[in-house]
Amino acid sequence: MEPVMPERRRPNFTFQFIILGIFLAITLSRIYVDWLWFGSLGYLAVYKTMLFTKILVGAAIAALFFLFLGGNVWIADRRAKLAKAAPYYSIAAGISVIAGFIGSAFWFVVPRFAEAAPFGFVEPLFKRDPSFYMMVLPFYQALIITVSLAVLAALGLTLAAYFFSQKPKKAARPAEQPPEGAEQRITQFTVGLPQKGRDHLAVLFGVLLLAAGAFFWIRRYSLLFSHRGAVYGAGFTDVHVALPLYAILTLLALAAAGVVMAYPWHKRGKLLLSASFLVFGVFFGGMLVSGLVQALYVEPNEFNLEQQYIQENIKHTLYAYGLTDVSVKDFPVTYNLSAKDIAANKQMIDNIRLWDWRPLLTTYQQLQLFRTYYDFVDVDIDRYTINGRMTQLMTSPRELDQQQLDAKAKTWINEKLAYTHGYGVVTSPVNKISKEGLPDLFVQDIPPKSGFAELAISEPRIYFGEKTDSFIITDTKANEFDYPLGNDNVFTTYNGSDGILLNGLARKLAFSINLGSLNLMISSALTPDSTVLIRRNVVQRVKTLAPFLQYDSDPYIVIANGRLYWIIDAYSSSNRFPYSESTYGINYIRNAVKVVVDAYNGDTSFYIVDKGDPLTQSYASIFPTLFRSFDDMPDALKQHIRYPEELFRIQNGMYGVYHMKDPQVFYNKEDVWQTPNEIYDREQVEMEPYYIILKLPEEKKEGFFLIRPLIPRGKDNMIAWMAASSDPDRYGTLEVFKLSKQELTYGPMQIEARINQDTDISQLFTLWGQQGSQVIRGNMIVIPIEHSFLYIEPVYLKASAGGALPQLKRVVVAYEDKLTMQPTLDEALQVLFGASTGKPQEQEEESMLSGTIGERFAQASRLYDEAQAALQQGDFATYAQKIEELGRILES
Description:
Blueprint: H1 14-40, H2 44-80, H3 86-104, H4 109-114, H5 130-165, E1 169-170, E2 189-190, H6 195-219, H7 236-261, H8 263-266, H9 269-298, H10 302-320, E3 327-330, H11 339-344, H12 346-349, H13 357-368, E4 374-376, E5 380-386, E6 389-400, H14 412-418, E7 422-423, E8 425-429, E9 443-444, E10 449-450, E11 461-462, E12 472-474, E13 480-485, E14 488-492, E15 500-501, H15 505-515, H16 519-522, E16 531-533, H17 538-545, E17 550-551, E18 556-560, E19 563-574, E20 588-598, E21 604-608, H18 614-622, E22 627-629, H19 635-638, H20 645-658, H21 663-668, E23 673-674, E24 677-680, E25 683-686, E26 690-694, E27 703-712, E28 720-725, E29 734-738, H22 748-757, H23 759-770, E30 773-777, E31 781-785, E32 788-799, E33 807-815, E34 818-822, H24 825-833, H25 853-872, H26 876-891
Parallel strand pairs: 3-29, 21-22
Antiparallel strand pairs: 1-2, 4-6, 5-6, 6-8, 7-11, 9-10, 12-16, 13-14, 15-16, 17-19, 18-19, 19-20, 20-21, 23-27, 24-25, 26-27, 27-28, 28-29, 30-32, 31-32, 32-33, 33-34
Helix pairs in contact: 1-2, 1-15, 2-3, 2-5, 3-5, 5-6, 6-7, 7-9, 23-25, 25-26
């Protein structure tokens, strides 16, 4: 009877199919959701370009890998008669899919290469347009990397195929047998590669050397981004040593490739190894020689050898950061400011910012939140036309923060269906103060109220903002909370244009998978008319629509035509601009695009404000339906564009060094400018740029500018100030006003030191501190006016008790060698110039106690001592009386 052979078990691929199914479900649901979302915004053509380019790039790379790997497996099978070729084809297919998936992430390299727009000039070394390095060269580099990885994968796969195709052979026995009693040696086996396999692998290695030759040739261009010399870019060593070295390496790699690929004919393994080691030996030897030349020859005579390259670095860096056309003017400081000058600049004086955004944010949060689930995230500064006059206002949106809901209220219904949006904004002028030292609110409360028609808001709901990080569903059976009204709530239904209808099982399933929410499938609160709103965070929203742009971290909200809009600055940038100094990982930047997002509808528009930027021209060619002309922006929104602070900071830093256009001065760093410091609260911090309504020298009317003082490195006196225009008709114009180096002009920290040294001010600060209050010194504003400077610093008082409001109690004004601290700006100007703004603030209506600060300090100290003595004796009536008198003095 024949033995029964056990049935061979078939492999179980259940787990693999489950993993594959999950991957496909996630991928397809994401594609479907994105397709619907882009289409709902009118940008389906943009998504199609992205999606199909990714698919084509990924498919092309996968096909290249599979053809190359599969072809080499086929050759190996023909040469070595592989026992089982199928597993190797499967491995080749797996590697190809992975390569295609990874390669598709770099899809944008291809359309940018195809639509590269020229800059119109060439760099001096290779005589190529900068667009070659920023848009064309990355494609060639990606191509070489792809080919090299494919060859490496083929080498590994074919080596394994040949190795495992050979049967082990018993090694030859030794000639002499070991003596009797000695340990018996184990029989040895050897596995070798067939000669045909060696020939095959040699050809593949030769192809890899060809790719190395292409790499060395392309590598020459990277010298324009070298850090080796005195400045960023190609230096003496790069041009005279490294550049010839890469040319030699290219020729050696090609020659070595020929020698290696000829191995099937000459069969000389040592020659193959020698050719390969020669290439890499010359490479490492050349790097060593370059280092020695730089250290022993260039650095001892650096300026003479690097001068022409320093000049190129200066020229290209100024261009790359938009600083070539900076208007430089002298600003002679005369200090002859009079009351007449103050009156002539009334528009500017009336808009001097006294409110620091940090204490103001705290005040908004205490006065205008109304419910714990609301939050003010930031305060934005902008200008509005109020009663025919340009007025600088500070605005903060009241957003809904679901994280602040009570723990028991954090249900899926509440977070996704009920608490869906913020409501309105709070707006106040930069300089108005109430009797209590609080801001004068121009827009306030829920629903928002305003006494100015220009600030009236007909649609205050904020469905899209900075804190709207989760999806919501509207038109459901649940009541959608609108705003609180006394002890009750008002409910609403979203009527905006955004949202995707959840009207079918396929859509519900896709969104459930994509958003990770099973409730979208099973919740009974949804109706056939329910819509889902996703990507409501405005920064995430624009990044998804145009991921190739960089975005400012500070979106700001504006009121226009009765609606709320977010404006986000978008930048075209690169780290591949030749000869340009690098900072924050980039060496080229333009504020090329303004993005506007409707806070209620979510409508998103991209407006090109820099038509001359080649990167943006390239992007517009790739996505013709994405961008719109700046001329198409509504006039009501044009009046609110601002020059971005982040770009201005970068330009300040670069211009502080690169304003020195003489190579010798630049090399010695003789005249470096830097940003001054200031005192905020009690800490020394870097002075931030600030927006201001300003009339520039020789100009007839005011404009809205972003400015910042500059000081010499290592000193505190002011040496210049820089201004960027935000007015639509001259947007982006940069001007630098240089001060005399022979005369002292106080810098911010020198004024801060004078404030600290003023005995009357110091005594009052000390007295306030003794009463348990926190003295907050706001950010200093340096105001260029006529040919002089005013230095203005607000002082706030905040009680130590929890929930206390910062109150603006004093304004410090300095001019030349004069300094005063008064309850209002108007009083301070009267003390210094005998001038008044002609617009008394409400604080001035308070009756002030007479006497100097020193006299009031002495009186306050006496009252404090008398109050403490009465308290120790148990005389509470006298104690209360003395404390009340003390309070009146401190508030005066």
